[in-house]
Structure of Snurportin-1:
Amino acid sequence: MAPHDLRRPFKRRPISDQQKRRELSLLRQSQHRSDAQQRARNLASSVISLQSPSSPDVDPETLPEPMPDLATTGHESEASNFDIRQASSLRGPEARKWFASQLMLPEWMIDVPENLSRDWYVLARPAGKRCFVVSADGTTVSRLRNGSVLHHFPSALPGGARKKGVSGPAQSYSILDCIFHEADQTYYVIDMVCWRGYSLYECTAEFRFFWLQSKLDETGACDPPSFYHKFRFSVVPFYNCDQSGLHSAYTGSLPYLKDGLLFYNKHAHYHTGNTPLVLIWKDERCSQYVIDTDNNGQVPNQQHIVLELQDDGKIVTSDDPAVVVNCLNADFIKQSGLSPGSLVRFAIGDGGLNCVDGKFEKADLQYISVSNRARAFADSYSKIMFQYMARHSPLKAEDLASVISQENQQDKLPEVEMSD
């Protein structure tokens, strides 16, 4: 895809449900102000202090005490609603759900956003393990979205290593949203949540990305590994999503293996959980994993989805609010040994899916089994639809380029003054 190729016109739907969610999310964040500082403290303390049951090699004696004032503050963040004194009780699915819900999770791109070239950044997502990295009190800890400790190490991040003659504020801590790339043992930073105790939850992506570039360079965290800096950090390059930027992210050479493209709305705050203001898109050229594979790494003949069973028999997605896909009768639920909260795997039959305004009007589902216990969430609506489109009518790179070209042409149209 050359940067200035003219593509076939991409026909937009009048207004999609995903576009409606984007507009609603922007409206909500302008009306809502949470205790972002408390939320950042809670997350930093839980990442640093909680011992993961799946990480027996981490000696609890070496972990610092929880940061003060995290459990005694009178008002908790609505988003986390988490008391650090209860942290030790988090196990299994509860721990996975809580840690995963602290990340900003992209929706899958099932339509092209409006004002793509003006209001969005694009970056090539590194393949690897998504995690939080927290530096505080002379140590650095990374945790995966399932809550398990990935690494416990010294780093050049603020407060990330114990050095003689070097001290900082007791409450200084930093939180980075990263992807760990195994091949070159590098943490690729895709976002900044907190820096030296200053919360960035309610800052725009435009501001967070500016700080990420400028602040990380100052620390030496991007330098090669050393005694006090075990792993290298690197900021993922981001571009304005114009023709040149899309071309660079999509085809440009990078030191890591790509796993799709991420699109960030410039005005988006760091919203925990699924958000339509960050989108992921994939095709075979920029990702090895476009269509989901089974446990053997093979693409099944039918699309598989995972849904959650509710008390009333409805099976729903992980969205908030959840999207109802279908309803199971009581006899089937009893015969299958299912219970409310069960994550259930289905195949989509030949009847396919039909959605109108973000609601499933028809879904030909075939029961397979209860999902793996290691799984914490059902699939989201956008993932189900992206996977369905990828099999039948994928959204292509040429479509993205075509939308940008149309926007550029509209910007160049002269204004016509109406005479009396």
The chain has two domains: 17-45+91-281, 304-399. The chain has nine helices and 17 strands.
